[in-house]
Write a structure and sequence with these properties.
This protein is mostly helical. Helix content is 69%, strand content 1%. A hairpin with a 3-residue loop joins strand 1 and strand 2.
């Protein structure tokens, strides 16, 4: 008998598309199409509408998937299926770093809720919060684990996302021109009409929505192999850029701006991908001019009026600089397509992304240094329109500066236990109440959010909760970047995570757009676990 050890590994069995995968994909389609549009009474109950829609649909799916997994598991076990031995019924048995971070986040939120002085709001967030209580967080964790165990890539889900978000974008563009096909503006005063748009809510929430959905459409336009699907993604991207212009919110510009730079660096080595990136960029820049053309026709031919947009958005929509940017992007796109025809699959030197990344890092450092200088050392120089960006004080960012400064003071006054676990999920209102008098000088009588998600978590669920949350986001991004070299679907899904996380620095968590972000955290982790489907992308 030979003593030679057999080192041949058992081949990995590819899991077949099953009922539980179908249920998960149908759930995602509903969340990407019906959820953003769902509203029972215009804007008056919209946060609660989205909240209960997500809770109800996710609850049904969690129960359904648990039953499907249970019966599949014990059915396979009874028959001693080889698939059962290899993949445990298709479910990964090993917990990842992000899995543990999710459980840690839930555990911290439970502790924070139990010891909160406002237990009802900590649980539901329904009195003076934004429904971001323990219940919603528990559903986030529950749907995360279901998606990471039951997702199977089918491109129709992303096509549905592009189509569904395109409808939301189109409504935003129409609302920009005071065209209200759904009657969402009925019974609203003029100021509220200026701030609210589409079926999402105010302009900050619309920007948050764009920062989740638009990056996915852009990256799928780069990676899909199907021409018809690419056209759909490009059209959705064009409408998304129009909506970004009309949303008139700095958070959206910040998120999408950073995303576009990161993707430029990521795609810079492969000409086959870089050309499609610039094609999408050209289409989006053209769409800004089409928005201008559309509004001019309405105002001059039909006497309609439009809402105001900020100076930065005017660079793309109204200024001649927009035409220059279109020309530059179009020329680069054409050159890249010609290069790809003459030298297919050309890969550039690793130095290219390194140089681009270094330039981006230098620009970020320069901006931060300018903020420190004009905020701490030179507080007298007139900065004009740049003052709102470069000079941090209480008025900065529509008085976000005031809320951030006071939030750090509140945290500093916490007991050791509160520093660790906060005042309870979604209880920022109560922590900030002592400063409502000072807040009135900015025109507000109260607030229930710091307008910075990370500061909000620091106050409400403490340092332990913030560390757990950052671990979820950071772990998701790190693993996706590692996997994306072999599976392009990872970079598609993580693009939404990156973009949302950037805009969250100046925005708020709520059950209108944050559930979509959580879905992509889960999808990114699911894709990182399973390579199935990557061969369908380029």
């Amino acid at each position: 008998m030979s003593n030679t050890k057999n080192t041949t590994e058992t081949p990995r069995l590819v899991e077949k598309y099953s009922t539980r995968h179908a249920v998960m994909n149908y759930y995602l389609v509903l969340m990407f199409t019906v959820f953003p549009l769902f509203a029972s009474n215009a804007y008056f109950n919209i946060r609660h509408d989205k909240y209960y829609f997500f809770i109800a649909l996710s609850g049904v799916v969690i129960i359904a998937e648990a039953l499907l997994i249970y019966f599949a598991y014990y059915g396979d076990k009874k028959e001693n299926s080889p698939e059962m031995t290899v993949s445990n019924g298709g479910l990964p048995t090993k917990f990842s770093f992000t899995d543990w971070a999710m459980l840690a986040l839930l555990a911290v939120c439970v502790i924070s809720t139990v010891f909160s002085n406002q237990s009802t709001d900590a649980l539901f967030g329904s009195l003076n919060g934004r429904n971001n209580g323990l219940v919603l967080i528990a559903f986030y964790v529950g749907i995360y684990f279901v998606i990471t165990r039951c997702y199977y890539y089918m491109e129709y889900v992303f096509v549905a996302l592009a189509a569904g978000s395109a409808v939301v974008y189109l409504l935003s563009v129409l609302n920009f021109c005071y065209i209200d096909p759904l009657g969402m503006y009925a019974q609203l005063d003029a100021k509220t009409i200026e701030d609210f748009t589409s079926t999402i809510g105010n302009k900050n929430l619309m920007s948050s929505f764009i920062c989740v959905m638009l990056p996915v459409a852009i990256t799928m336009s780069v990676h899909t192999k199907k021409t018809m699907f690419r056209i759909i993604y490009l059209l959705s991207s064009a409408l998304g850029f129009m909506a970004l212009m009309t949303a008139d919110s700095d958070s959206g510009i910040l998120g999408i701006g950073v995303f576009l730079v990161v993707m430029l660096i990521w795609y810079s080595r492969r000409i086959s991908r870089l050309k499609r990136y610039f094609l999408c960029l050209t289409v989006m820049l053209v769409s800004a001019k089409l928005l201008r053309f559309f509004t001019v026709i309405l105002t001059q031919s039909f006497g309609c009026k439009t809402k105001e947009i900020d100076e930065f958005q005017k660079l793309f929509v109204e200024s001649d600089i927009g035409f220059v940017l279109i020309g530059i992007a179009a020329v680069i796109t054409g050159v890249l397509y010609i290069i790809d025809i003459k030298k297919p699959n050309l890969t550039l030197s690793k130095a290219v992304p390194i140089v681009l990344g270094s330039l981006f890092a230098a620009a970020v450092i320069a901006v931060l240094s300018a903020v420190v200088y004009f905020s701490c050392f030179d507080t007298e120089t007139e900065l004009g329109g740049f003052a709102s960006i470069l000079r941090f004080d209480e008025r900065w960012g529509t008085h976000r500066g005031f809320m951030w400064i006071k939030s750090f003071e509140i945290f500093g006054d916490f007991s050791f236990f509160q520093k660790l676990f906060g005042t309870g999920p979604d209880t920022f209102f109560y922590a900030f109440a002592p400063y409502f008098g000072e807040l009135s000088k900015f025109g507000d009588t109260s607030t229930n959010a710091a307008h910075n998600e990370y500061l909000n978590y620091l106050i409400t669920i403490g340092a332990a909760g913030l560390i757990a949350y950052l671990s979820v986001v950071g772990g998701t991004i790190a693993r996706a970047v590692k996997k994306s070299f072999s599976n392009p679907l990872s970079i598609v899904c993580v693009s939404a995570v990156i973009c949302y996380s950037v805009q969250a620095v100046v925005n708020i968590a709520q059950p209108i757009t944050t559930p979509l972000f959580i879905l992509f955290v889960a999808l990114t982790e699911a894709v990182s676990r399973n390579n199935t489907g990557f061969e369908k992308l380029s």
